[in-house]
Amino acid sequence: MSNEPGPSIPDVYHIPASVPPTYTPPDSYDSFRGTHVPLIIDNGASNLRFGFSTSHTSPSTSSLNTATLTPHSAANVVARYKERKYNQPLLLFGDGIDAESGAKGQAKTPWEGDVLLNFDALEHALDCAFIQLGIDAPGVEHPVLMTERLGSPLHSRALTSELMFEQYSVPSLAYCVDSIMSFYQNNRPQASNAPFDADGLVISFNTATTSVIPILNGKGVLSHAKRIPWGTQQSTEYLLKLIQLKYHSFPTRVTSTQASWMLYNFCEFATDYPSTLRSLKVPANLRACERIVQFPFALPVVEEKTEEELARIAEKRREQGKKLQEMAAKNRMEKLVQKETDLQYLLNLKDGRGDNKREWTNTLQSEGFSDDAALDETIKKLELDLKRARKKEVEGGDEPEEPNFNLIDVPDTELDEDGIKEKKKQRLMKAGFEARARARREKEKEKEEKEAEERKDEEERENNLDEWAGRLRREQEVIMNKMKERGRRKAALSDRKSAAAQARMKNIASLAADDRVSKKKRKAGGEDMFGADDDDWAIYRKINTAAASSDEEEDYTQLQVIESKLLQYDPTFTTQHTHAALTTQQSALISAFRPQYEEGDIAGSTRIHLNTERWRVCETYFSPGMGGVDSAGVGEVLQSVLARFTEGEKARLVKNVFITGGPSQFPGLRDRIYATLRPILPPEMHLGEIVRAADPSLDAWRGMASFANTEGFKNVGVTKEEYEEWGGERIKRWWGGNWNPAE
Amino acid sequence: MPPKGGSKKKAPNDGSTTHTPTLAEQLSYLQSPRPFKNPNYTKNVNRRTKNLKTVLGQERERERAGRERKRQEREEREQAMDVDGAPPQTEQEVEEDVPTYTSIEAPPSLLPPRHYCDITGLDAPYTDPRTGLRYHDKSVYELIKGLSAGVAKDYLAARGVNPIVR
What we know:
Family (chain A): Belongs to the actin family.
Mean pLDDT of chain B: 73
CATH class of the domain at 13-196 and 697-726 in chain A: Alpha Beta
Largest sheet of chain B: 2 strands, antiparallel
Region (Disordered) (chain A): 434-463
Helix content of chain B: 25-40%
Strand order of the largest sheet of chain B: 1-2
Distance between the termini of chain B: 66 Å
Oligomer: heterodimer
Protein name (chain A): Actin-related protein 5
Mean pLDDT of chain A: 80
Order of helices and strands of chain B: HHEEHH
InterPro entries (chain A): Actin, ATPase_NBD
Low-confidence stretches of chain B: 1-17, 86-95
Radius of gyration of chain A: 46 Å
CATH superfamily of the domain at 13-196 and 697-726 in chain A: ATPase, nucleotide binding domain
Organism (chain A): Hydnomerulius pinastri MD-312
Structural class of chain A: alpha/beta
């Protein structure tokens, strides 16, 4: 959440929840049975639109306003899926696939990009379409008008024809290009049977391609048409890739459907892309124009324990601790008692030692002692333990008692073997004792010194705050500089060609060089005197590329101490000045581009901010190179298409520029095309208003329906007899269809 | 062939299941009758769905063969005319180029490509020599320095530049 004043926080848009599809019963066929009303199929890569060219209520074709007809429209995907729950095989079509989550993985579409390839899928799709229309005659007894792609490969057409004629027994079949039909719908001649002779330039935005088709005298000049391999499919993928790169560790997966929803709702064309970018350089503008998309998230359930529960838990823990302590004390008591009884037993044993030596040794051995001395030792140890334990209980402290060192000063000669051993032991103990005392004294001295320093510091601080603060700040800077220097040095060392790395190599080489030791010395058997001088070893610090971590840690802790003192006492030193804040500071641009949310902000971390992507994705239509496709963009293609016509023809074409297709609804497209065309035309040529299809998605179908109701329709189709004679690839050439018949 | 069933049946399965049909089953078209299909038509089941590459390759071949043939015809015609000695009066209409799938493909771009920042999308005057990413200013460069090799490659792939794996 931005906390700054100024422009209001933009609205947050939520990803729409997926709506389960509803079942629609098939249409009634009664009004169409036996009437031979043309059947219109707009076979699009994203949607299949199908229907009869007239409506139910008014089957007469004379005065029909096809602008009100609405075809069935379904996503052009088919899935054969075996349902897990009841083990039923299913054939789902279009939106029905959303009903079964597993079916999406099995979905097949007849189109691959721009080419109709998968005819099984097409067959199923057409089956479902015809079933939806309710056809129950022994064949599809209607002349069919279908769309195909601009310059569709003959293979696709052959198989489609085969399917339609052989499988569905249609009487005649005609192909047309969808964008030309959309143009027809919007430029229809007034009289219903007048020939179509409009002029215009059609820019069609399809799913996987974008095409530019010039139309002269009502005839599509397809030889001069051009097709760009960039369409909504590629744009959606590009947007998805951008989002995934920007939000690398996003908690949920962003799907293509969500990406396409975002594309349709937030993306727009920039009239002048470079100037738009220049305005977006300023972080404030970035924030102003961003759109926030909130993804669904789940709040983690935090069990709030009530006060009493917390108290109860604490009580329990304390009791447990006490119990453990008691148990430990009991153990110790038991052990003590055990030791006492042992000691007693052994003493009794010793007292009860008779004069008989052999018996004594036998008894000893049966007890597990090798000889008399061992027994004495054990007894002494037990006594010591007991004494110590009792003292601990009584005093609770361990006092270093001064053991006796009486034998140290006695010369060796006066002692016997045992005495000598004793003396050695005592000497060791004394040395240890003295060392410990010395260490204790040093520690105390250090503590006193530190306290004195702190007192001095406090005095200085209380007397002269500014100077004290200044001094500390300087120290902090020095340390930070050292750390930065170290970081820089580490980076320089990793670069092979930097001066630091080369110096390092020089050092290594000189260490390993043969002429380190002068020839004379070597001949005389001299050795390399490397380590004699202590400072020589310092060279290893320089060579070692691994960071000196102990130094870093020291610096770091020192820095922490200084910073905490400053934070506490100096009002002008805020958390912003600490080293941690300075190193992780992001520039204003990056934080506007991709705002970071706090750790615990679940809602924030499932948000996507779209700022530059909104224009970047649409710009790819005009320069597909941004998205990795090496092709000319819409602007360039328009220019090259227009260049192949004469001036007069050009004038006729640009008077009526027409855009159609789903993406033509994105805002800003018309201005952009106008701005693209105006510079490449001579200034006196009149560039008409860019016209958009009245209904970009359905107008192609409507145009086909209108055309099917005219007289001209009968002449353009291939009848069944002609199909059987020529085969599936041959078509009649007409103004709305493709030009590539087979030879 | 008599239609399989004149009545229009709804999609749910018949009898084999005893549960109420789920939404998916209602939407399924598997069980619906298809009287309009010609039962005599046997699809060539051995026909494998050709993939895009083969189809386009076929088109190219056909186009090339067509062009060869046309050229030959023209040469023959010219020779015939020369033999006749008469100038070609009835010149046939210059055959309009028949557009095929490959011929109407847009040409590659001739404009010099503009450099856009791979991270932010803004203008990018600079390029990072280590990864090849384009960036907008030095704060973006700090960000790039911290990227791992995989992420940098992903950015490049979005632009269509696929660096050779070193």
